[in-house]
Design brief:
Blueprint (H helix, E strand, L loop, with lengths): L1 H22 L10 H30 L1 H60 L3
Helix pairs in contact: 1-2, 1-3, 2-3
């Protein structure tokens, strides 16, 4: 049962991360269909909340309320470890992609501006 609870806790953590990402998507996903992703994440989160409440009721009834408190503390610790290990890496990758896209857009803007200056200079006979 412990390993199943650990898998379930990790899945909830992943679900929270997906919900957070759907509500604040990275810049490079700006033109994708984030509304459907957000709706799926919200639906899954609601289902997980209901399942969590059922699990809390069962564990509190069978083992007592202190067992549920211990599970919540363990879950918080595991969620923190998961965030440090996996999610920080994904956030770093997203930030790198955002920076690359931003630099490419800035370079394209500068190239467009240089082209305008060149064409205006050529039209005036300065080039």
């Amino acid at each position: 049962m412990g390993s199943q609870l650990q898998q379930w806790s990790k899945a909830l953590s992943d679900l929270d991360f997906a919900h957070e990402k759907a509500s604040k998507p990275p810049m490079y996903k700006m033109f994708s269909d984030t509304q459907s992703q957000a709706l799926e994440a919200w639906s899954a989160k609601q289902q997980a909340t209901q399942m969590r409440e059922e699990l809390r009721s069962h564990i509190s009834f069978v083992y007592g309320p202190s067992a549920w408190d211990e599970i919540v503390r363990t879950e918080a610790r595991m969620r923190k470890e998961q965030r440090e290990l996996v999610y920080k890496k994904q956030e770093f990758i997203d930030n790198c992609i955002n920076c690359i896209v931003g630099v490419l857009l800035a370079l394209a803007g500068l190239a467009g501006l240089a082209l305008v200056f060149y064409l205006v200079g050529k039209q005036q006979g300065k080039w």
